[in-house]
Amino acid sequence: MKIHEYQGKAVLASFGVPVPRGKVAYTAGEAVEIAKELGFPVVVKAQIHAGGRGKGGGVKLARTAEDAETIAKAMLGMTLRTHQTGPEGRVVRRLLIEEGMDLSGAREMYLAIVVDRGRGVPVFMASAQGGMDIEEVAAKDPAAILKEAVTPAVGFQPFQARKLAFGLGLAPAVLPRAVPFMQALYKAFEGTDASLLEINPFLMTRDGALLALDAKLNLDDNALYRHPELKELRDFDEEDPLEVEASKYSLNYIKLEGGNVGCMVNGAGLAMATMDIIKLAGGSPANFLDVGGGANAEQIRNAFRILLADPEVKAVLINIFGGILRCDVLAEGVIAAVRQLGVKVPVVIRMKGNNEEKGKAMLRESGLNFITADDMTEAARRVVAAAEGAR
User: Fold this and answer.
1) Of 184, 247, 165, 196, which is closest to residue 15 (Cα–Cα)?
2) What is the arithmetic mean of pLDDT over 31-55?
3) What are the residues whose beta carbons fall under 8 Å from the beta carbon of 348, sequence distance 6 or more?
4) Distance (Å, whole) CA 353 – CA 330
5) Which of 128, 144, 216, 274 is most buried, judged by most C-beta within 10 A?
6) CA distance 355 to 363
7) Residue 39: how many CB atoms within 10 A of its CB?
8) Average pLDDT of every residue of the chain
9) Mean pLDDT score, 314-328
10) Quick check: helix, strand or coil at residue 212?
11) CB-based burial of residue 40 (10 Å sphere; 0-12 exposed, 13-18 middle, 19+ buried)?
12) Residue 208 and residue 203: Cα distance in Å, rounded?
C-alpha cells in the first residue's frame, strides 16, 4: 500500500526521524492559513502516489500569501503528469504546505531501505547523488549506490550506519547525528512492515542538521492487519477503481495496458504462467484477477463483473487448478455470473483438479456457450482466436 509524502513524514517523525514542519491542505484557503502559520517562504507540494512531481510542476515555492493562494488554486484539481503516472496523469486533491529550507551550502543525498527478495533480507542503500532519479544514477554509475544488507535477527547495526555515512563523505563531526538518523529510519521500516522506504533528498544543511526532505513509504499489504492505524492512511482516489472494488471481496485484480484478454486464475504463479502463454499464443492479457484458493460462487460472480468492467476485454480465459477451490464450485459461480450479468464476450475455461469432471459436466449441461480446453496451450490459442474474432 502506497501512502502520501505527508503521511510518510508523519510516520517517520513518530520514530524520531527529523522532518521539515508542514501540514496537509485540501483547499486554497487552508493552504494560505498553514503557510502563514509556518512563515514564508513555504513549499507547496502536490500529493499524489508518484515521483517526479517537481519536474511535472507539482512543487512550487511561495514567498507570500498571494503566492500560496495562486499556486494552491492552480495545483488543486490539476492533472499532474510525471514519468511514473503515465500519460493519463493523476488528479491532485491535496497539498503539503511545508516550511522552506535554505539550501545554500546544503548537501542533497539519498537513503533508502528495500526488501531484497533474491537474498531475503532488507538492504539499506545510500548515495551521495541525491535529489535526482536514482534509477538514472544506478544506470550511469552503479558504484555510486552504497549497500548494506541487514540481518533481520540482529537489525541494522551502528557500524553499518557509520560505514554508509563515511561512504557518503560525511565528516566525523556529523556522525553523532547521522548514525541515529539512519537507525531511526530502519526502526520505522521494520516497525511499519514496510516494503520500501526512500528519502530523496536526504538533506544536510549548512550547519550540519539532517532532515528527510522528501519521503516515500510503501507498506506491505499482507501485514496491514497488524497496523490498523496505518490501514486508515489508504487513499482510494489514488488507486484503480477496479482494484479497489476487487479488494472488497478479497480478490486481487491487476489492470494491464494494451491487452484484450481478461484472465481469471487462482494463485499468483498460475497467473504469471497464464499471461505468459497468452503472449506465446500471440495475444495480450488486459488484466488478471486472482480469486485465491478458497473462493466461493459469490466471489466468482463478482470477479466476473470486475473483469468485464474493463471495456478492452474482448474474451475471458478462466484457468483454474481445483485444489481448495473445487472445479464444481468454480463452474457454479461462472454459470451464475454469465446468466446474471448477461455476458456477451467469449469465455474459455480450462480447469484441472478436484471435482474436475463434475465441473465440466455442469458447464456442458448449463446450455451456455462456453469454450472448454483440456490444457493451457489449447486454452490460450482458443481465447486469443476468440478475442480476435470479437473485435
Assistant:
1) 184
2) 95
3) 315, 316, 317, 318, 370, 371, 372, 373, 379, 382, 383, 386
4) 11
5) 274
6) 13
7) 10
8) 92
9) 88
10) strand
11) middle
12) 9
Active site residue 198: yes
Q: CA-to-CA distance for 114 and 195, rounded, in angstroms?
A: 6
| Catalytic member of 98, 148, 198, 332 | 198
378 pLDDT higher than 90: yes
Where residue 137 falls among pLDDT bands split at 50, 70, 90? confident
Q: What is the DSSP letter of 199?
A: E
| CA-based nearest residue to 116, from 158, 88, 148 | 148
362-381 exposure pattern, b = at least 16 Cβ within 10 A, e = fewer: bbeebeeebbbbeebeebbb
**What are the cell numbers at 262?**
481478461
**Most distant CA atoms of the chain, gap in Å:** 79
Sign of CA dihedral 59, 64, 67, 72: positive
d(CA 212, CA 12): 9
Residue 110 annotated to the active site: yes
In DSSP terms, 148 is beta-bridged to 124
Distance of CA 358 to the CA centre of its chain: 40
> What band does 300 get if pLDDT is binned at 50, 70 and 90?
confident
Structure pTM?
0.81
The one catalytic residue among 6, 110, 186, 253? 110
When pLDDT is cut at 50, 70 and 90, the band that residue 240 belongs to is confident
H-helix segments, the chain: 5-14, 28-38, 65-75, 134-140, 158-167, 175-191, 228-231, 241-248, 268-280, 297-308, 327-341, 356-365, 376-389
